């Protein structure tokens, strides 16, 4: 009973739809999981498709800043680690596209929405990776923010999303440690290397904090998403948790967070960070960031270059299906 529409042409719910809605509301109230076969409200399906596909697009576009550094990694070991990480991100994109497909939109349609439409992907990947130290900052700050945001998603009410997130979070944890390790080595190297690490942290700190999304007061999706147990914490709560986590880590790295207003507030027991430039954030998510055009052009070219692979795979699948029919 996976019906999308909940209201018929007359505006009256059918008895099956009433039963489906009741079952859905019960699942949410008892914090259970919704499976693809279950009835779900059209808005729940739509909002999940939006969030999960944006998440998948982010993983795929997110391969670009790091892939650009594979050929320039400073050693064979660093090169193989970076290649493994970038491949992991491709895997994450694929789990997430597959999980999103269970909601009824095909991967081809989702891809078209990114390449030829206006689907979003994470703002962070529209910033350039200028030096090797940026591989460290991306691992430490970007994967670190992704973990804080995504661990609660392992408990998302939509079961295929939660299941995909469990494996993704394990891999992100390895990614964060490799970023930390790159920065640690640089910050304990020559003065020029330490400066390179500091410069990377200076450039990625604020964009990493913006990954959590707009402030709660300007987040149109959060409230409903939390009521449906998709998101478990608000954007500001997770951003706050992340800042609390990286303050001590930055000290251990011997690096400074570029935030003149950063201070520990005894009363709330929290680290207070500077106001972020939300105009910049809006510009970036609307396509006006430093690398939006380049990222999308690269993604479009890769998609078009890969058309023959998709055609060959489809032809192979058709042949296999014909063979199976003949055997049967
Ligand atoms: N960038 O109402 P809210 C990674 C949009 S994966 C771009 O607060 P929501 C791994 C939002 O979509 C990183 N757009 O939205 C990696 C909405 O627009 P819409 C990706 C953003 O959904 C590491 C509008 O603003 N992670 O890093 C952003 O409740 C290294 C209003 O916002 C995920 O996708 C943004 N930062 O909360 C890979 C995690 N923030 O759709 C490679 C899953 C907000 O109404 C290398 N997603 N927007 O047109 C989420 O947790 C949520 O969707 C949020 C946004 C928290 C991102």
Automatic annotation (TrEMBL):
One GO cellular component term noted in the UniProt record for this chain: cytosol
Matching Gene3D superfamilies: 1.20.1260.10
UniProt superkingdom: Bacteria
GO molecular function annotation: phenylacetyl-CoA 1,2-epoxidase activity
GO BP terms in the entry: phenylacetate catabolic process
Stored SUPFAM superfamilies: Ferritin-like
NCBIfam families: PA_CoA_Oxy1
Name listed for the protein in its UniProt record: 1,2-phenylacetyl-CoA epoxidase subunit A
Record organism: Brachybacterium vulturis
Lineage of the species this protein comes from: Bacteria, Bacillati, Actinomycetota, Actinomycetes, Micrococcales
């Amino acid at each position: 009973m996976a019906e999308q529409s909940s209201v018929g042409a007359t505006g009256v719910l059918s008895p099956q739809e009433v039963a489906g809605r009741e079952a859905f509301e019960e699942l949410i109230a008892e914090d259970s999981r919704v499976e693809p076969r279950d009835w779900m409200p059209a808005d729940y399906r739509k909002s999940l498709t939006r969030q999960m596909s944006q998440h998948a697009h982010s993983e795929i576009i997110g391969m670009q800043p790091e892939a650009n550094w594979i050929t320039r990694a400073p050693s064979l070991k660093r090169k193989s680690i970076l290649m493994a990480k970038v491949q992991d991100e491709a895997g994450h994109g694929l789990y997430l596209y597959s999980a999103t497909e269970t909601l009824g939109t095909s991967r081809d349609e989702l891809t078209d929405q990114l390449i030829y439409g206006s689907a979003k992907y994470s703002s962070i990947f529209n910033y350039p990776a200028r030096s090797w130290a940026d591989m460290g900052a991306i691992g430490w700050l970007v994967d670190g923010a992704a973990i804080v945001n995504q661990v609660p998603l392992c408990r998302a009410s939509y079961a295929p999303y939660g299941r995909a997130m469990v494996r993704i979070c394990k891999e992100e944890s390895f990614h964060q440690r490799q970023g930390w390790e790159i920065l640690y080595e640089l910050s304990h190297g020559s003065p020029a290397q330490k400066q390179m690490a500091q410069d990377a942290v200076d450039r990625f700190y604020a964009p990493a904090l913006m990954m959590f999304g707009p402030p709660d007061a300007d987040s149109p999706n959060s409230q409903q998403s939390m009521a449906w147990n998709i998101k478990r914490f608000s954007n500001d709560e997770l951003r706050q948790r992340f800042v609390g986590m990286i303050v001590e880590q930055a000290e251990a790295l011997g690096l400074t967070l570029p935030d003149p207003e950063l201070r520990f507030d005894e009363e709330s027991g929290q680290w207070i960070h500077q106001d972020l430039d939300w105009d910049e954030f809006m510009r970036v998510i609307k396509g006006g960031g430093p690398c939006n055009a380049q990222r999308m052009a690269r993604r479009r070219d890769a998609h078009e270059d890969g058309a023959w692979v998709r055609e060959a795979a489809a032809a192979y699948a058709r042949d296999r299906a014909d063979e199976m029919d003949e055997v049967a």
